[in-house]
Amino acid sequence: MTIKGLKGFKDILPDEVSLWQMLEQKARSIFHRYGFTEIKVPILEKTELFVRTIGENTDIVEKEMYTFEDRNGASITMRPEGTAPVIRAYIENGLNVRSVVQRLYTIGPMFRHERPQKGRLRQFHQLSVEVLGSNSPKIDAEVMAMAWLLLQEIGLMASLEINSLGCPKCRPSFKDALNSFLEGCQEHICDDCRRRSKTNPLRVLDCKSDNCQKQYTAAPSILDHLCKPCEEHFDEVKQGLAQIDIPFSVNSFMVRGLDYYTRTTFELITGDLGAQSAIGAGGRYDGLVRQLGGPDVPGIGFAMGMERLIMLLQQQDDLDIRPQLDLFVVTMGEAAYEKGFGMLQKLRGAGLKVLMDYEGRSMKKQMKQADKNRARYVLILGDDELAKKEAILKNMASGEQVGVTLADDNEEFAETMRSTIS
Ligand code: ATP
Ligand code: MG
Hints:
Layout: H1 14-33, E1 37-38, E2 44-46, H2 47-54, H3 59-64, E3 66-69, E4 75-78, H4 83-92, H5 95-98, E5 102-111, E6 123-132, H6 137-153, E7 159-164, H7 171-183, H8 191-199, H9 210-216, H10 228-243, E8 249-250, E9 262-269, E10 278-284, H11 288-291, E11 299-305, H12 306-314, E12 325-332, H13 334-349, E13 354-356, H14 363-372, E14 375-382, H15 383-387, E15 390-395, E16 401-405, H16 410-421
Parallel strand pairs: 1-5, 7-8, 12-13, 12-14
Antiparallel strand pairs: 2-4, 3-4, 5-6, 6-11, 7-9, 9-10, 10-11, 14-15, 15-16
The structure holds adenosine-5'-triphosphate (ATP) and magnesium ion.
Residues 59, 257 line the site of magnesium ion.
């Protein structure tokens, strides 16, 4: 009996890994351009951290968390998202004292016990960014623009939908209006929505059922209930986006699946992934740091789902980013084999990506191996040539072959190789 992996947990195999590395490198490069620095936070946290921030009546907390008791009986949760841990770390380490505005990002796995399907896993990965300490609507526009630039640079298209959820001052009046509306459609909505319309009415708008969504097209709009400062803030966010040429549309029904959002929320949607159409989402959470016992600083962030981005990248057929080898050393004969092995370490020390065959394969098979590894050059070493201190260097793209002189000192030879082929 072989042991299989867990359902919804995926191996990322070597063939796919270069795409992941490319995505991660691109993301880092862009985040750094916007002045963000990385923070690495643990995968396990106290359960309470997520319950208090994400909210009790949310899908994540009600149904999706990997929560268990550790050996001391403490309730532990595998992080379902990155914002709460980053804010916990921000408060715990007093990062607010170091700089008024902190721009942080983190990259890593998240865990949600959902029904596994295309684009929906139980362990998935997010690129997650947070800006703490600024109220400015320019920041809202800027983080959306950053997500936009990332998509642009990796060649993906998405549409940006934005909304404002107001603040604790203006939300009650919206909740009242929504409550009256929901009273009128109780028979037509799902059990979850009926229950949540009593406990956390905003959540119903986030329901995944088409039937419920049909009902909610007639729901009141939060945008009609914003207080003056929230309305002005939202206007400035829209102006900011327009100013830097980021196209967007307003979707007043977007509430997002976490309770901590205030004011701006947004989603990046694609038409190319079927049902799992959200590739990234985020928003402002001005009360969250305070709520977790930290200073009264506003925040905004977003997370992008890496699996969904990878799936989109895989749909591009002209994409070939498999890694290349700089050099494959082909050897014929015992002396050449030993000389080749001796060179390898020095060639790698000189910065070259190099392989050779240790399985005694024929010259033809070794050439095939070089091809398979996408080697840019092949160095052909034979016993006879070796005796004359010569070898052949073949450019695999052009097929051109030139003679090279070997040196007794492998390090010296490796330097010559490096300057010849890089
Ligand atoms: P969805 O509406 O698809 O359930 P969500 O609102 O739960 O998404 P967020 O919590 O905002 O998602 O997470 C941000 C991004 O992380 C999503 O836009 C998506 O790309 C990705 N994501 C979320 N859940 C999963 C999952 N189970 N598997 C793969 N990617 C996911
Ligand atoms: Mg979800």
